[in-house]
């Protein structure tokens, strides 16, 4: 029987503002409360804050690491996945999820967003990138204003897959 658990990736930079960190921690808490497995890149910043929030509520956290050592994972990652792939691991982060919540972030986050969208994995954005194409807004990233809204949208989109 296939595993029925839901998987949501929380993506964002290893350097994050206090506001972004707070958003990520609350997203992690909300995901754990709903029984969702949190997937991330396993390092600091947004990834650590989301994992900390999830663990505070008994959630499961998976960190897909860029390097060769599982010890590089933030202390809240329960399942470290060592890839030795650098930024190429962003593909695994995006494709391991049924939905992605992007918070803040730099170009690594943007690449994860692109990989998710290319794979038809919905992306919900909290204080993150916006896209345009030929000068026209591209609405591929679904905006959310609060952590609860982001999590609810992710769960709703997963339910309709």
Low-pLDDT segments: none
For the biggest sheet, the summary is: 7 strands, parallel
Summarize the amount of helix as a percent range.
25-40%
Overall pLDDT level: 96
β-strand amount: 15-25%
Q: Give me the count of strands.
A: 9
Structural category: alpha/beta
**Please, how many helices?**
5
Instruction: Examine the coordinates and then state which fold CATH places here, giving the name of the CATH topology.
Output: Rossmann fold
Q: Label the CATH architecture.
A: 3-Layer(aba) Sandwich
Give the radius of gyration.
14 Å
Write the layout of secondary structure elements.
Elements: E1 7-11, H1 18-33, E2 37-40, H2 46-56, E3 61-65, E4 79-82, H3 89-95, E5 99-103, H4 107-118, E6 123-126, E7 131-133, E8 136-138, E9 141-143, H5 147-159
Brief write-up:
By secondary structure, this protein is an alpha/beta fold.
Task: Give keywords.
two-stranded antiparallel ribbon, 7-stranded parallel beta sheet, single chain, Rossmann fold, alpha/beta, 161 residues
Overview of this structure, please?
- The structure is a single chain.
- The chain has 161 residues and is of the alpha/beta class.
- The chain has one domain: Rossmann fold.
- It has helices at 18-33, 46-56, 89-95, 107-118, 147-159; strands at residues 7-11, 37-40, 61-65, 79-82, 99-103, 123-126, 131-133, 136-138, 141-143.
- Strands 4-3-2-1-5-6-9 form a seven-stranded parallel β-sheet, sandwiched between helices. It has a two-stranded antiparallel ribbon with strand order 7-8.
- Helix 1 runs parallel beside helix 2 (46-56) and helix 1 packs across helix 5.
- The longest helix has 16 residues, at 18-33.
- The protein is globular.
- The mean pLDDT is 96.
